[in-house]
Amino acid sequence: MLLSSPDACYRLLERLGDGGYGEAALFQGKRRQSKSQLNNWDPSHGFRLEESATVTVNNLLEDSSLREQNALYQRYINENREVLKKELGLTEEDIIDLPQLYREVREPSVDTPGRAAAAFPNLVNMIVLGKFLVIPKPFGPIINGTCALEQHVTSLLEPLGTDLRLPG
Q1: Most buried of the four, 67, 77, 125, 144, by CB within 10 Å?
Q2: Would you say residue 110 has pLDDT above 60?
Q3: For residues 145 and 148, what is the distance between their CA atoms, to the nearest angstrom?
């Protein structure tokens, strides 16, 4: 069973940072809405993506608010993990943690905590076609010409006899 895991993502990011890749950028060439435009829908163009989405490994590691949010989401995932293990008769060896971070999504008019959304394409949201797995491109940090997230997920899944396919 595959589960998304903020803890696994932070372990990977910390390993990259400790290895001298703290300035490696994620989401290169991608754009996002500016905070002032979160509710600025243009019927002819949708949401306008005005800001660069590029962020470094160190930016993510140093963002204490993001880390706190993800610690909470990891607790929720862990609670569900225990239920799934009990109900399906699984052990820890049956579970593979895929790196994933989440960000809080709040409704502007509501003061209560919002829902979580994947901070990058959620790697557990894949298409399974027999032994072929098609996962979304995560836009992770490029280390020596290779996406570190793609390389890590490949190292976790290929030993299972799968053939991993990534778009682009």
Answers
A1: 77
A2: no
A3: 9
**3-class DSSP state of 90:** coil
Residue whose tokens read 């400790």 = 18
Q: State the maximum Cα–Cα separation within the chain, in Å, rounded to a whole number.
A: 51
Instruction: Out of 54-58, 64-68, 108-112, give the one with best mean pLDDT.
Output: 64-68
Q: What is the pTM of this model?
A: 0.82
Residues 6 or more apart from 127 whose CB is under 8 A from it?
133, 134
List CB contacts of 49: < 8 A, sequence separation 6 or more.
Answer: 31, 32, 33
Strands 146-147 and 51-52: unpaired
What torsion, rounded to 10 degrees, do the Cα atoms 115, 119, 120, 126 define? -30
pLDDT tens readout for residues 66-86:
999 999 999 999 999 999 999
